[in-house]
Amino acid sequence: MGCNYMEFSQKTPDRARRVLFGACSSVVERKIVDLVVAGSNPVKHPKILFVLFLGFGLSSLNAFNLHPIADPIIGGVGLGLFLPSQLIEARPPSLAGFGSISSIDKFDAAMTPFAFNKGLDTAGDVMQIAGMALSAIALIPGLQHWNESGGMTGSRGWDSVLTFGAMYAEAFMLTAGTKDLLKLAVRRYRPYTHYGNGSSPYIPAGEEDDYYLSFPSGHSAYAFMSASFLSAYMLWDWEESGGDAKWKWPVIIGSYLLAGTVAGLRIAAGAHYMTDVLAGAAIGSLYGWLVPVLHLKLRI
Description:
This protein is mainly alpha-helical. It has 2 domains: about 5-55, no CATH class; about 70-295, no CATH class. Helices cover about 60% and strands about 0% of the residues. The protein contains 12 helices and no strands. Helix 9 (about 155-185) runs antiparallel to helix 10. The longest helix is centred in the middle third of the chain and has 31 residues, at about 155-185.
């Protein structure tokens, strides 16, 4: 349920007061309702306009809002990480650092590195893309309202799509930039490279530019970013936007199971060590939760 100021103006003051704390939970929303109930025009109050500008979207029908100051900063940081990671040329490490399977640290060795498996490698690709696409589940309530309102103008659907798209783009750039810069800095040989002749890495066909970019796992980073991002929406926006509460926890659990499956496939395919996928999962989870938290509406 959103805070509809015009609806309050058509009710008695007593009725407006009774629903105030249920629908309008922010300080600014309460102040606007007070002005409307009193017969005053909120637009004529500069302080209200100023706070609404700084908290753009505060009175939207979604749990998240875009911010005219914070979002350029978040987006700028994301671009600052993402663009260099795409422009820096990756170079293989020296073979002096290459060793046999016995040279792997004990923790990763205990997880049994696997030889390259093309089928499982492809399965991991497909599952990762599916996980990212499933994040759009969060838009279902908003799109339903979009359809009911007959279009974009003034609808919850348009606000949902715009906010979701901007936030997801920020989380994606932060995740991609961080994991790619780490890959370029660490340049760790993938597990399958140790299944060669012992003196030089085994490089499967088509992996000539990727065999030394094991840490962290990009697939795991994207999978857990998407799972965390979707979970944040399910926790804070799903019911507020009109979604059925019974789907909240099944979707959250399912999204993380899918992300975990992606990580497991990357290990089983011989493409990553356990520490690779743990680091990737941590990076993705961090940004998948952080970006939505930074966009939560101010509720006091």
